[in-house]
Design a protein that fits this description.
Elements (H helix, E strand, L loop, with lengths): L1 H33 L4 H20 L11 E6 L10 E6 L9 E3 L2 E3 L5 E2 L5 E3 L5 E6 L12 E9 L2 E10 L1
Parallel strand pairs: 1-9
Antiparallel strand pairs: 2-7, 3-8, 4-5, 4-8, 6-7, 8-9
Length: 168
């Protein structure tokens, strides 16, 4: 099924490209014979056909991994216990009302330390979906070791946001 859809899309894009190019060049030929052809028209048509050709050509190139929003904290480790700094990120994913977001504790990259986090929340916004998370280091705990910590926020098992904290 996926191969059939890919072949259909490829044939359709190529056919559209050829029909658009021949239509534009036929019109330019007619305009040239009547003396109505302008340099602007030639440049505009050439650029539009070239754009479609490049778009068609890039269909065959591998696509990258979609970007994941990042919440970044830059905190001093000795002042972190007892504080709850908050970070937010805008996400393109539509988050249904009442959805449960899950977050992993931040893990020290290359080490054994962790920083606990609160449950992520969706902030009300009229234009975008905004996700917020807070670091939740208890006041009685030791300051986390210096380094880079990383965790993630999931929506129904799908990666939604990456959380990174640099502790110095």
């Amino acid at each position: 099924m996926a191969i059939t859809a890919t072949v259909r899309r490829t044939v359709k894009e190529f056919t559209d490209l050829v029909l658009d190019a021949t239509g534009r060049f036929a019109k330019e030929f007619d305009d040239a014979t009547t003396g109505a052809l302008t340099a602007d028209q030639v440049v505009i048509d050439g650029v539009l056909v070239l754009k479609r050709a490049v778009n068609f050509w890039t269909m065959f190139m591998p696509q990258g991994v979609p970007l994941v929003p990042v919440i970044y904290f830059d905190v001093q480790g000795t002042t972190l216990p007892g504080l709850t700094p908050a970070g937010t990120a805008f996400v393109d994913e539509s988050i249904p009302g009442g959805a449960i977001l899950t977050a992993t504790p931040l893990q020290l990259v290359g080490g054994a330390g962790t920083i606990p986090v609160s449950a992520p929340t969706v902030l009300p916004s009229t234009l975008r979906q905004e996700v917020q998370i807070k670091l939740a280091v208890p006041a009685a705990s030791l300051a986390p070791a210096a380094g880079t910590y990383q965790g993630v926020i999931y929506l129904a098992g799908k990666l939604l946001v990456t959380v990174v904290a640099r502790v110095f």
